[in-house]
Design a protein that fits this description.
- Helix 2 packs antiparallel against helix 11.
- The chain is α+β, with helices and mostly antiparallel strands.
- The longest helix is centred in the last third of the chain and has 20 residues.
- It is globular.
- The protein contains 11 helices and 18 strands.
- It binds zinc ion.
- Zinc ion (ZN) binds next to loops.
């Protein structure tokens, strides 16, 4: 029979050595994984990707040296090599769809390259890291000019491969999927291919960390922002029924879609493992008027966020390689800051390891307590959880502030008025690792 807190933790609590309940406690194995991220390996991946000249979605697919086909085969080869190094721990798959659209005028094959590391406990529960391999220049239809895409999104692909290298050396209860997507610049097609693939497999996708433009710390405004990354998340989920919307308008939840609580989880992860490197949560699904591969995953009902560097340089994105009036345009390797990219990658590694090691959030979270001085939460237990934390925060606070722990499937917070706070529940596993917080009702359900 499991007890909570474990003896060692109870002693530490008594000694005052453990952070307050609201802080994520670092786990030594996860800290070691985050530390294993190599700036040199990230740089080698970007160098190899740039070497394919262009990776435009409509570029050459048969050349062994140039175009998106060669780049995808190289990526699959890297996954193969990593799998050999871990005793065949990765399943490599290349789902594809033939599509047409506004930016694909004749039918083209969109192919993603996936490496799947099946979980040893609950393989149907899945956490995903993604980046897109395709690149572009000024004219989105130009499939032949050199389009190095070092940062957009060579940086994201490098993070995916580096996460695979580090985490494939370890075992996790949940499945981790390393996803290299195509067709982003032509209309987010690779994200849709991935969403359809996840649905067909019947995965319970708990988190998607989409990395797009994560490698540059020198903003166009001249600032250096090398100690923060932006995490974009939606506040409400798609597919709400009229009844769900009415309930959310009445009692709240517009700040607590699972994607938003995944963003909070990333912010906690940075605080616990990244030594001063911060997540800047942006309460918006993506940058203003722009899109990314997290969107099709969100549309499919999966919690998903977008990571993007803190301060972008637009002279280096979607540009023909050229110099004009002394300004060098183009997405070249020298525009990537490898130590910065390594920090963002380490955040991904720590978050994936934490999510895949912890139990899933509880399901069917309910809340009651109107016209009483207390608030009661209840839920359906999560497989593998040994305890739960009930969280609350001021309605205007961005992060969860207070928590109480229980081993039961319900908890009454005495003297905490339901009117005055937002509430949620996380699951805690035997190592003390926690799931993201789940807000009650349809608005917050993972
Ligand atoms: Zn991009």
């Amino acid at each position: 029979m499991k007890t909570w807190p474990p003896a060692a933790l109870a002693f530490a609590l008594a000694a005052g050595a453990v952070p307050a309940a609201a802080e994520m406690r670092p786990d030594p194995e996860i800290a070691a994984a985050a530390k294993a991220v190599s700036p040199a390996d990230l740089g080698a991946t970007i160098h190899a990707l740039v070497g394919f000249g262009t990776r435009h979605t409509l570029s050459d697919t048969t050349s062994p040296t140039r175009g998106i086909g060669a780049a995808r085969r190289w990526t699959a080869g890297r996954f193969d090599a990593l799998s050999k190094a871990c005793g065949g721990c990765l399943v490599i798959d290349r789902p594809r769809q033939t599509v047409t659209g506004a930016r694909i005028t004749t039918p083209a094959v969109i192919e993603d390259v996936l490496a799947i590391q099946p979980g040893v406990g609950d393989p149907n529960r899945v956490v995903i890291i993604s980046g897109h391999i395709d690149s572009r220049v000024t004219d989105v239809m130009n499939a032949t000019s050199d389009a190095p895409g070092a940062n957009d999104d060579g940086s994201g692909v490098a993070a995916v491969l580096e996460a695979a290298r580090v985490l494939s050396q370890r075992k996790f209860p949940a499945t981790i999927v390393y996803a290299v997507l195509s067709g982003e610049e032509q209309g987010l097609y690779g994200g849709k291919v991935l969403a359809d693939y996840a649905k067909a497999k019947g995965w319970r996708v708990e988190a998607v960390l989409n990395n797009d433009i994560i490698g540059n710390a020198h903003g166009q405004d001249g600032k250096v922002e090398d100690q923060a990354v932006r995490v974009f998340s939606e506040g409400t989920r798609p597919g709400e029924t009229d009844k769900d919307i009415a309930a959310r308008r009445r009692t709240g939840g517009e700040l607590d879609a699972p994607s938003r609580n995944l963003a909070r989880y990333l912010a906690d992860t940075a605080d616990a493992y990244l030594g001063g490197f911060k997540v800047r949560m942006i309460y918006r699904a993506d940058r203003f008027g722009r899109g990314g591969d997290q969107a099709p995953m969100q549309e499919a009902g999966y919690p998903a966020v977008r990571l993007t560097e803190a301060d972008e340089n637009y002279d280096r994105q979607h540009q023909d390689l050229r110099t004009e009036h002394g300004i060098a345009y183009g997405d070249v390797e020298s525009g990537v800051d490898l130590p910065y990219l390594a920090r963002v990658t380490a955040l991904n590694v720590a978050a994936l390891a934490g999510l895949a090691s912890a139990p899933p959030p509880p399901t069917d979270v309910k809340i009651a307590g109107a016209v009483t001085p207390d608030t009661t939460l209840s839920w359906t237990p999560a497989p593998g959880a040994v305890a739960y934390k009930v969280w609350w925060r001021e309605t205007t606070a961005p992060r969860w502030e207070h928590a109480e722990t229980t081993t039961a499937a319900t908890l009454t917070l005495k003297g905490v008025n339901i009117d005055d706070y937002f509430f949620g529940v996380s699951s805690v596993g035997p190592r003390g690792l926690e799931s993201p917080v789940e807000f009650p009702g349809a608005a917050g359900a993972f």
